[in-house]
Design brief:
single chain; mainly beta
Length: 171
């Protein structure tokens, strides 16, 4: 992963006098590893590796850790089920996770359902046209954010470089 700049902006909350307004741009360093085969995948990454102080506050950036893992279970040469999880945790934030099950047909069409702890249920569908992956996902918000959010829609566009690929790889 390459260094990125993170931008923060907090607006004062008229109901909480302890919340102050500030803007800060600070460098951020991220690192991660990803391993995969035709039957499994796993990754681990760390964000905000530099504990830099946010100017104008007593706050510092804190590490956030991410783990992703899953496997491909082939029912036949054409049908595969891919369960996976994505876990997020930080020093001052609660552990959260996503659980997802995706079905694939001929390594070309896919659909799935996911659950984000205390937050959302996700439905997704997609396919491959030539080497382009096109998809759509809908997150239905379950948490208290529902009052302020009308769910979310995601468009997925990707490119599969398959020149040297002999068999489907996971994910």
């Amino acid at each position: 992963n390459k260094p990125v700049l993170s931008s923060f902006s907090v607006e004062p909350d008229s109901f909480d006098p302890d919340v102050v307004s500030f803007n800060a741009i600070v460098p951020d360093v991220q690192a991660g590893v990803w391993i995969y085969s035709n039957i499994f995948f796993a990754g681990l990454s760390i964000d905000q590796m530099l504990p830099l102080k946010l100017k104008g506050t007593q706050n510092r950036l804190a590490n956030h850790y991410f783990f992703t893992g899953g496997f491909r279970y082939s029912y036949s040469p054409y049908i595969a089920i891919i369960p996976s999880t994505h876990v997020r945790m930080g020093l001052f934030t609660p552990l959260t996770f996503d659980l997802t099950v995706k079905g694939e047909y001929k390594n070309k069409y896919w659909g799935g359902v996911g659950f984000r702890k205390r937050d959302a249920v996700t439905l997704m569908i997609g396919g491959v046209i030539e080497n382009f992956e096109i998809g759509y996902a809908f997150d239905y918000t379950l948490s208290g954010l529902r009052k302020y959010s009308s769910n979310s829609h995601e468009i997925i566009i990707g490119y599969r470089y398959t020149k040297f690929e002999k068999e489907p790889r996971c994910p």
